[in-house]
Amino acid sequence: MNSNLKIVSGHQPVYLPWLGLFHKLYLSDIFVYMDTVQYLTNDWNNRNKIKTSQNSLMLTVPIDKKKSKSSKLNDIRIFSENKNSRDFWQKKHWESIKINYSKAPFFNLFKNDLEFMYMEKKWNLLIDLCWYQFNYFRKILGLGEKKIIRMSETTFSGQKDDLVLDHCKKLNCNAVVFGEMGKNYVNIEKFNKNKILVYYQKYIHPIYSQLYSKNGFISNLSVIDLILNEGPENSIKIFKEKNVTVDNMSSVEWVNRKNI
To answer: For residue range 41-97, what is the model confidence (pLDDT) as tens digits?
Structure first.
């Protein structure tokens, strides 16, 4: 990577994250875990998909808005049926993972960790669950040494592109990686004025071995689909396949390079 580039990226917490999130983390020098932004109903904060013998299955963590202090992600409470036991959703999600992945080549390698996550831990706040999973999966993908900043532990201001611009300024970064949808709300002039390069991630989802091949390959599933089918070593390579790498970030299509 060009030694003059210091790249920041970030993402809001999500349940059982997809591969594109980890690719953004991989490209970053500093990654902002945006755990104080607003909870989004019907988004990916509390749900994601796994593959089944029929097609795909959405696993959704139930939210208790009435008991949540605010609509910020770090205040969102998980609906609890019984505070003294593992809740039904945890058991249901674990059973769904077991049923659909028990024959995956690397299921037994991760079985104990996943069972502990669902059957031993008790989750009250959505952010605690998402943070735990984020750190667990990023280590499996070889991203354990990446620098992570939690918004809940740092003072940032603004919304949308102003918030990201504040990330850049306060973390002394001169380049930023947005998701592909960033082009719909980013005001490039703000970043030009501050001499900050902007890149929109165009994640190309890799093709790998999946169970239930008769259904064809299904992309954009949770990261567990990759790691349970391909294992840690292959997964580290596969999630980067056909995508921009850290080594060629200096030559990617920075949308405002000519204006800085």
So the answer is: 989 999 999 999 999 999 999 999 999 999 999 999 999 877 666 789 999 999 999
pTM to 2 decimal places = 0.95
Phi and psi at 57, nearest 5°, equal: -130, 130
Residue 116 has what DSSP assignment?
I
Distances (CA, A) of 67 to 41, 76, 125, 186: 16, 8, 11, 34
What is the distance between the alpha carbons of residues 17 and 71, in angstroms, rounded to a whole number? 21
Q: Locate 252 and state its tokens.
A: 């990617």
For 136: left if phi > 0, alpha if psi spans -120 to 50, otherwise beta; the answer is alpha
DSSP structure class, residue 76: P
Is-contact 60 46, C-beta < 8 A? yes
- With a pLDDT cut of 90, the percent of the chain lying above it is 93
